[in-house]
């Protein structure tokens, strides 16, 4: 019996050696293109109190609430802001009044925010002439900040009525 055991053990050793040497490999190339990714979104709207004497005396009216602006990218980027159309606010005189359109420039509107310790503060540019609002020199994830708006007021230039515009934020890869 011991002879069979020895012979059987030797055969097992030979089979193990042969199967360990039988090996093959294959390769597969991986190529993934990643384009610049820019994402910007805004939610909400600006709310302002009704302007009164104290606002005219202060020379401005400040929003009491504003939308949030979120942005992120895999490249450095810049955000500009401009009016969606024209160089002036749209004006509707107060009820019962017939004041002429004062052609209030959109540059009388200033937008401010803080994006994680990085402040942004700029006047609104005319349509087609955006002003640089925020620059991020590195790529990175979400930065979010609540926007505040300030509109300059002057007794001589701003008759009673409703002033409106739409602000466009544009993100551009650097």
Question: Based on CA inertia axes, which overall geometry fits?
Answer: elongated
Count of individual helical segments: 2
The overall pLDDT, averaged over residues, is: 91
Rounded radius of gyration (Å): 33 Å
For the secondary structure, the number of strands is: 12
Largest sheet: 4 strands, antiparallel
For the largest beta sheet, what order do the strands appear in spatially? Answer: 2-10-6-7
N-end to C-end Cα span: 82 Å
Unreliable residue runs: 1-11
Judged by helices, strands and strand pairing, the structural class is mainly beta
Listing every helix as H and every strand as E from the N terminus to the C terminus, the arrangement reads: HEHEEEEEEEEEEE
Helix fraction bin: 10-25%
DSSP strand (E) fraction? 35-45%
Overview of this protein structure:
The protein has helices at residues 2-21, 53-58; strands at residues 38-43, 60-62, 68-73, 77-83, 90-93, 109-115, 118-123, 131-136, 140-146, 148-152, 161-164, 167-173. The model is unreliable at 1-11 (pLDDT under 50). 15% of the residues lie in helices and 39% in strands. It has a 4-stranded antiparallel beta sheet with strand order 2-10-6-7. By secondary structure, it is mostly beta strands.
């Amino acid at each position: 019996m011991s002879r069979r055991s020895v012979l059987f053990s030797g055969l097992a050793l030979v089979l193990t050696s042969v199967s360990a040497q039988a090996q093959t490999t294959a390769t597969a190339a991986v190529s993934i293109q990643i384009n610049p990714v820019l994402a910007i979104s805004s939610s909400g709207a600006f709310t302002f109190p009704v302007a009164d004497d104290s606002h005219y005396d202060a020379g401005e009216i400040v929003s009491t609430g504003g939308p949030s602006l979120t942005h992120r990218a895999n490249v450095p980027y810049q955000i500009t802001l401009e009016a969606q159309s024209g160089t002036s606010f749209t004006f509707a005189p107060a009820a019962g009044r017939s004041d002429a359109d004062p052609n209030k420039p959109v540059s009388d509107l200033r937008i401010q925010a803080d994006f994680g310790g990085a402040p942004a503060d700029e006047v609104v540019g005319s349509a087609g002439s955006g002003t640089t609002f925020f620059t991020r020199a590195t790529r990175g994830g979400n930065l979010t900040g609540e926007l505040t708006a300030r509109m300059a007021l002057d007794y001589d230039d701003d008759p009673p009525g409703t002033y409106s515009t739409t602000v466009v934020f544009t993100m551009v890869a650097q």
